[in-house]
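Dear H.,

Thanks for agreeing to be a second pair of eyes. The structure we're designing against is below in token form, covering all 82 positions.
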């Protein structure tokens, strides 16, 4: 997911940092069925950037046959300077 993450320019200028935890539900083919912020970073801009990251990364890797379908995941998206 790191390569799909874009640090918001305004957040970088304000030196905002944080971790956003996303809760997402995906189907067997890795398509995102639902996504929401599970735990906010405290910055609306970083929270939105995390959701945008997930959208750019879709589809996610396929779910292995031995795992349930659909699958719910909690994904941390970290924004840090330096």
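And this is the sequence the design step returned. I haven't edited it by hand at all.
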């Amino acid at each position: 997911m790191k390569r799909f993450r874009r640090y918001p320019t305004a957040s970088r200028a304000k030196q905002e940092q944080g971790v956003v935890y996303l809760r997402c539900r995906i189907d067997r083919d890795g398509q995102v069925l639902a996504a929401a912020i599970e735990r906010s970073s405290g910055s609306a801009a970083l929270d939105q950037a995390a959701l945008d990251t997930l959208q750019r990364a879709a589809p996610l890797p396929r779910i292995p046959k031995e795992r349930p379908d659909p699958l719910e995941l909690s994904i941390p998206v970290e924004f840090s300077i330096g």
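Two observations from my side: The radius of gyration is 13 Å. The longest strand covers residues 18-26.

Warmly,
E.
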